[in-house]
Design the sequence.
């Protein structure tokens, strides 16, 4: 024998909320939660896109300004007539 389920009645002797309303509320809450997850994923992807672009720009600037043999600026300067 299990526990007896306590029924919640309002002052008029009726259930506080019909079952259909509770199901609708749960469905609405689930839909809202899914929408928030989608918006969060979209915001994270936009943030990562800009982070990747800034990282690539920083690496490119490093190679341009560095004096090593990998310098893109030295390669570009070889093609320019500088009057030497």
Sequence:
């Amino acid at each position: 024998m299990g526990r007896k389920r306590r029924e919640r009645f309002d002052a008029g002797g009726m259930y506080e909320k019909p079952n259909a309303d509770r199901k609708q509320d749960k469905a609405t809450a689930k839909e809202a939660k899914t929408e928030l997850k989608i918006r969060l994923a979209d915001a994270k992807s936009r943030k990562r896109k800009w982070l990747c672009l800034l990282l690539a720009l920083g690496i490119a600037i490093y190679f341009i300004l560095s004096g090593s043999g990998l310098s893109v600026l030295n390669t570009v300067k070889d093609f320019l007539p500088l009057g030497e």
In short: The helical segments are 19-65, 72-79.
